[in-house]
Amino acid sequence: MLDERKASILRAVVEEYIQTAQPVGSGLVARTAAVNVSSATVRNDMAALEADGYLQQPHTSAGRIPTEKGYRAFVDQLSHPALDRSAAQRVRSFFDAAHMEIEQMLADTTRLLSGLTDYAAVVVGPAHEAARVRSVQVVGLSGRIALFVAVLANGAVEKRTVELQADTDESLLPRAAAHLAEHLTGQPLAAVSEIAAAHDEAVEAVVRSVVAATTGGHDDEPDHVFVNGAARMAGSFAAVETVRSVLTILEQQLVVVTLLRDVLDRGLNVAIGTETGMQPLAECALVVAPYEVDGEKVGTIGVLGPSRMNYPQALAAVAVVSQQLGHRLSEG
Amino acid sequence: MLDERKASILRAVVEEYIQTAQPVGSGLVARTAAVNVSSATVRNDMAALEADGYLQQPHTSAGRIPTEKGYRAFVDQLSHPALDRSAAQRVRSFFDAAHMEIEQMLADTTRLLSGLTDYAAVVVGPAHEAARVRSVQVVGLSGRIALFVAVLANGAVEKRTVELQADTDESLLPRAAAHLAEHLTGQPLAAVSEIAAAHDEAVEAVVRSVVAATTGGHDDEPDHVFVNGAARMAGSFAAVETVRSVLTILEQQLVVVTLLRDVLDRGLNVAIGTETGMQPLAECALVVAPYEVDGEKVGTIGVLGPSRMNYPQALAAVAVVSQQLGHRLSEG
DNA sequence: GACTAGCACTCGATGATACCGAGTGCCACC
DNA sequence: GGTGGCACTCGGTATCATCGAGTGCTAGTC
C-alpha cells in the first residue's frame, strides 16, 4: 500500500505533529534522520499521501497534519512498544506496594495510568455479577429497612437496601440470610434469581425483596468505573468547548463502559476520532486493553487523550498496567 | 457604608454582569427599573464604588465589572432567596423517589444539584467513623487475606482487607468476628481502637490486624466525596487553563473536603475568589451548606462555579437540597 | 525513471493605520 | 445633589501591506 519511503515520511509527520501540534513541512521531514531525500521529493510524496487521505493541509501554504487514516496507519505499523525504564519501575513498585481494597486499588490504578501518560485514564472494574459469593448477610437498619450485604471472592462487597413488607421479629433476618447464604455461597451473585423458595413464608418474603433489589434497576450502572486525570486531558485541547464535551462523556459512567466495551468487541486496542463512534470524541483517541484474572477477561482499562496522542507511550503504558493489574488481582 | 442608591447600582451591575459576562455601563444601569437617576449620576456613583473597591474597569473606556468585594457585598445583602417553583418540585420528587444505597443517593444528589445550578456540585458524605456499627463480619478471601466488613446504622458499609499472620482454621474468623461484634456493635467504628484483648491468642492476632487496618492509613481519604458537573463548570470559563486548574482541584478529593470544611469553619456559606484560600480558584465561587441528621451536622454539600455565579439561585438550591438531604437521611 | 534544484505562487500571520462607538470624567447648569 | 452635554479614551474591527513558511511545478541531473 505505502512504499517504504512514504511510510517513513508519514511516520515522521505523525511523530513531529504529536510533539509540536504544528503542521509539519517538507523541509523538516527531509531533515529527519530516517528520510534521506530532498525536501522536493518529500513534497511529492506528501502530495501523494494527501491524495490517499493520510495527510491533510489546514490551508494551502501550510505544512501537513495527519488525518484519522494517517494516525491509523501510524498506529498499525507500530511494533509493540516498550515502556521506558523509569515508568516500568513506577508500575512495578505501584503494584508491589498495593495492599488495599479492590476499589481503592482500581481508583489508584487510574491515577497511575493517568500519571504515566498525561491523559485521562479509565478503569472498569470486574463485573461483580460474575464473582463468586463468599458470604451473605442481612442487617436491619431502622424501621422496615434492611441491608443485604454480599462479600464476593475478589474482595468486592455488594449491597442493596431492602424494604421489608412486614415488621420483623428478632430471628427473621438471620434466617433469611442463612437461606440466601445456603443457595448463593460459591455461586455468582446473578444466581440470586434462581434461588429456591424458602419454606418459611416470612423468610420467603424477605428473600424475594432481596432478589428484586439485586436483579432490578441495576442496569443503569452495571459496573464500577473509575476515571481520573480529566484535568490532564483538558490541557491537551485548545478549545474549551472540546474540553466540555469530552468531560460530559467522561462523567457518564455508563457511556464510558459501553464505549470501552464496543471498542474491544471490534477487536481494536486503539480507537481514533470517529472510530470511537462518539461525535464528541472526534478529536480524541482511546487506547484500551482488557485485563485478565485467571485467564479470563474481567475488566478493561483505557486512556483517553487527543488524537494527536503519544501512541507508543500510551500503548505501552496500557499494556503493562493491564498485564500487571490482572496479575495482581489473580494472586488475590 | 453604602447608601441606598449605591447599593442598588452595585446590585444592578452584579446582576447584569452575572447574566452577560460583559462589563456594565452606566447607561444600562440607569435604564434599570430600580434606579431612577440619570446615567451621569450613575457614573458618579460608579466612580465612587470603584474607588471603594467594589467595582473595577477592565480598561478606561469600558463599563464596570464587580470585584471580589463587590460580589461579597452583593451576596451579603441578599435576603435568603427561594428556589423557583419548578426547581423546588424537582428536588422534592427526587427525594421522594430516592430509595437507594446511601452512596448511590449521595452521588445522585450531586447530579441533582449540578443540574439545578448548572455548576459543579460536591457532596461530602457522612463521616463513617461517627456512625454506629450494626453488624460485623470477617470473611476469608484467599490464602491469608481476609475482609473485615462492618455495616453501619446509616446503611454504609466499611471494609478493610486484612492480612493474617498465620493460617486460619475453620472457626477462627467467625470467632474473631464475634469478638469484634461484641465490642463494636452500637459503637462508632472508631471505638475499634479501644477494643479489649481477646482471650484466645489467634483471635487476638486477627483482631489486632483489623484494628491496624481500620485505624491506620485512612487519613488520605477520610470521607466519601462525590463530585459531578465538572463539564458544566467548564462551560463557565473561557480559558482552558482556568478549567484545567479547577479540574485539578476537583480531582483531589482530600483537597475538596478540606476546602469545604475550612469555609464552613469560618462561618461562611459563600466563598468568593481568594476567600476560598486556593489560588487556582481565584476566578471561582463556592456555595456550601452542611446537612444535618438528627440535629447534628454530618456532611456538607456545595456548588462550585465562576465568581460571576448566579448566587441567589445557587444559594437557594444548596439550602433546599441540604435541608432535604438531611431530612431524607434522618428518617432512615 | 527517479531524484533534485530552483522558482513562482499562495495564503495565514503579523503589524501599521484608520475609524467607530460604547463608555467615561468633568463641567456648567438647574 | 442631580443632570445634560461634551470632549476624550481606548478596545474592537476593518483595511491594507508585508513577510515568509511551505507548496506545486518544471527543467535539469544522475
Could you explain how this protein is built, in words?
2 copies of one chain form a homodimer. With 332 residues, chain A is α+β, with helices and mostly antiparallel strands. Chain A folds into 3 domains: 4-76, Winged helix-like DNA-binding domain superfamily/Winged helix DNA-binding domain (Arc Repressor Mutant, subunit A, Orthogonal Bundle), CATH 1.10.10.10; 85-127 and 222-330, Beta-Lactamase, CATH 3.30.450; 133-215, Enolase-like, domain 1. Chain A contains 12 helices and 10 strands. Chain A has a 5-stranded antiparallel β-sheet, with helices on both faces. In chain A, strand 4 and strand 5 (145-152) form a beta hairpin. The model of chain A has no long low-confidence stretch (mean pLDDT 91). The interface between A and B is large, with 42 and 42 residues. The first copy, chain A, binds a DNA duplex (30 and 30 nucleotides) through residues 23, 25-27, 37-41, 43-44, 46-47, 57-63.
Biggest sheet of chain A: strands, sense, closure? 5 strands, antiparallel
Looking at the overall shape, the CATH architecture of the largest domain in chain A is 2-Layer Sandwich
Helix content of chain A: 40-55%
Rg of chain A, Å, rounded: 26 Å
Class of the largest domain in chain A, according to the CATH hierarchy? Alpha Beta
Beta percentage of chain A is 15-25%
Question: Tags for this entry?
Answer:
homodimer; 332 residues; alpha+beta; Arc Repressor Mutant, subunit A; Beta-Lactamase; Enolase-like, domain 1; 3 domains; five-stranded antiparallel beta sheet; three-stranded antiparallel beta sheet; 19% strand; elongated; DNA-binding
